[in-house]
Design a protein that fits this description.
Blueprint: H1 2-19, H2 25-36, H3 41-50, H4 53-73, H5 78-98, H6 101-105, H7 112-140, H8 144-161
Helix pairs in contact: 1-2, 1-5, 1-7, 1-8, 2-5, 3-5, 4-5, 4-8
Length: about 180
Amino acid sequence: MRSVGWAIFMIYLPIFAVEAGMDASIGGLSMSIANAFLFLTPVVMRLLNATNVRIMIAGGFAGAGILFVAATIATPAPPLAVMLLVAATIFLVSLDVTGGLPLLMSVKPSERAEAAAVYATFRDVSAVISPGFARIILAFGPLPAVFGACGAALIGCALLARRLHPRLGRKRAAGPDKSAVEPA
């Protein structure tokens, strides 16, 4: 769903901006700003170390979803809607950093290369699904409805992510040192 969020942002934000009468360069500028947020990866990693994988993933989905829905509501003020969608990409970046961790942590270290290939396949599938998802929404509603539907799906993913184990990604607590000899 993270990839769907990116696809909806990259495809439909520039279309929305032009249809709303904004300058055609707004789409490119928005993409540049969103890509610049990738430089926040070290900050996301610090947050991840301070919290846990579940909080970061659920928070990323919730933040992006709320901002997508807010942008839908704000479409009568197109510049505000664009700013909200650009702000949502901060949360999508946090999902870029943390989203694959549950899958990679659920397999043995020797199986992680294969797991990464499976994960990449799901990303490719989401790139195909996104236009179909949007087409169904556009059959029944205006362009901003695509942002709202995507936001609702992202919020649904946040609710699902709350079911991740809270200690996912944390080192196990060290048990007693078995090699130490206890005094008699």
